[in-house]
Specification:
The protein is an alpha+beta fold. Helix content is 27%, strand content 29%. The protein has a 7-stranded antiparallel β-sheet. A hairpin with a 7-residue loop joins strand 5 and strand 6. Helix 2 packs across helix 4. The protein starts with a strand and ends with a helix.
Length: 235
């Protein structure tokens, strides 16, 4: 069994970060997400919002994987989240529903309001294989390494959605006028895009990564709109 965790501190308020997390799919960096569907959404007696989503992801196997290790490259993932608007806390758990004998991956996200109006996100992930045949540790190490490698692309996609929400809040709203963020998100959900549909922040053993002040920043090369337009043209 392998574990991975990390914390990030965002300059944005909790309301924006939690909303961006729920709306992170689709985005130009999540072409591996084939679909993301809401199964249920309810308001609890305590006033929290509970949502269950079913996500279909695609991926690839390492070259050393035995032939027939899994029957298909797609994997169904169950995501369960709870948003507490009063306590300004969001919790989210994701886990794969198939290929669990090869490897079970479970990720826990905790997003809460920090001091000075900032937002702290903590991510914990677990990788457990029951495949055997002398490959258990190798499979778990591969899952952990793959998770780390995908973090940067996940952050880039998340920051695009975060930027769109920031920009939409700065624009004045008029009666009957469409919201710019909603319009952009509809474009991302369109049939002509690469992704039709949703890892984000991991505390590692590296002391530098344990520092919440190491907040990720989007890569240079234009704002969210520039990257979004470029992605839509390429589709």
């Amino acid at each position: 069994m392998k574990f991975y965790s990390q914390s990030f501190l965002y300059d944005d308020p909790w309301s924006i970060v939690s909303l961006a997390y729920l709306l992170r799919y689709p985005n130009p960096y999540a072409s591996h997400i084939l679909s993301c569907d809401v199964i249920s959404r309810d308001i609890t007696p305590a006033g929290t919002l509970k949502t269950t989503r079913l996500i279909l992801k695609t991926g690839s196997l390492p070259r050393w994987a035995p032939k027939g290790m899994i029957s298909r490259a797609e994997s169904w993932v169950l995501e369960e989240s709870e948003v507490d608007p009063l306590g300004k806390v969001m919790r989210c758990t994701t886990k794969n529903l198939d290929h669990v004998k090869v490897m079970r991956v479970e990720e826990h996200i905790h997003i809460r309001q920090a001091e000075d109006g900032k937002t702290l996100q903590t991510t914990e992930a677990m990788f457990l294989s029951g495949f055997g045949w002398g490959l258990t540790k190798r499979i778990e190490n591969y899952g952990l390494a793959k998770f780390k490698a995908n973090l940067q692309r996940s952050r880039e996609g998340f920051f695009i959605i975060l930027d769109l929400i920031r920009q939409s809040r700065r624009q004045p709203m008029t009666m009957g006028a469409p919201n710019s963020f909603l319009a952009s998100h509809r474009m991302l959900n369109g049939s002509d895009t690469k992704a039709t549909a949703h890892h984000e922040v991991p505390v590692t053993n590296d002391a530098a990564n344990n520092n919440p002040e190491n907040t990720p920043r989007p890569a240079a090369g234009g704002g969210a709109w520039t990257r979004l337009k470029s992605w839509l043209r390429s589709g």
